[in-house]
Design goal:
mainly alpha, 3 helices
Length: about 70
């Protein structure tokens, strides 16, 4: 798997709503694939699932913040 870089919430603030939603979908699909491949054959770095999950949470938090109007 490709090494993921450290992403902060500020990086997601520059995206518009549609691209943020698309990025969330893309990352969730990648997490599902990673989870499945880890079930079949252990992946080299299982902590990558944690970082991916946390990045998704950051994006969803930003999406919710926008929905509330902040």
């Amino acid at each position: 798997m490709a090494k993921t870089k450290k992403v902060k919430a500020e990086d997601y603030r520059s995206l518009d709503d549609q691209s943020l939603a698309g990025k969330i979908q893309e990352e969730e699909l990648q997490l599902k694939k990673l989870h499945f491949s880890h079930s079949v054959n252990p992946i080299e770095n299982p902590l990558s699932m944690r970082t991916l999950r946390r990045n998704i949470a950051r994006m969803k938090t930003e999406q919710h913040r926008r929905a509330l109007g902040f």
